[in-house]
Amino acid sequence: MVLGWVGEMRPRVSILTDGAGRSGTSRIASSEKLLSAAGAERGSVWGPVSDPAFYEAILDGDISLFVGLATKLADWLIETRPPYVAGDAREGFNPTHDLCRLIIDAAVRRAEHAGVSVSNFAFTLFAPHENCPSELRSRAIWKSLDEAGLARKVAAAKAYPELAAEAEVALTGTSRKILAQHQDLAAIVDASLDGMGERSLGAECLMPAALLPPPPGDRPFYELYGERLVAAGTYQRAIRYRDHVLPIEHALAAL
Fold this sequence. Notes:
By secondary structure, the protein is an alpha/beta fold. Helices cover 47% and strands 14% of the residues.
């Protein structure tokens, strides 16, 4: 979603989990190849936790894992003193992405307590960047790709094997294929994706994280989807915001 910005700024990148999901296939090698080609460097956190282990830690209330990741990232920010940090927005679709945002926010606060000021930006994964709220545009980091840059970005998305399904959603603007068995849930995702497609990927927007509103609705999408997967026998337990994520949020807020 921000590959053009990565190629221009060549940031140091930290990766929270191995991205394996239910497939069991790590994405780290593919991510490293993509980031290396864009000129980015490795950060202090590089896929130390598998997705299944991360989900288990959420369900089991293993607060120490998340506090440890936030502390390690904060120490890195204090040491390197970057002008700003950018990462996933909190959108309510995936608990890993939402906790990534909470970890970043906690790390930035901890760095500030140590006297290091780091601006904090977020970018969406489930909404086209050209839909950045007008009231945030003057404070956002914008990049518009030219035709060659857009073509490189689309080619990179199509060449990332472990992200094929997600890339198709971004390139087509619909999740109805990937969520074929749950069309009512696909409608929720598609409402957020409204306007996303190959052309929309030419706009990249990093917004001030503190100004972004929380995800709408009483329960996040991942809670609804998780319940369906439990009912289908895919998982034994579903991650719920109030029962599992909120205690981690409170612990990170106190860091």
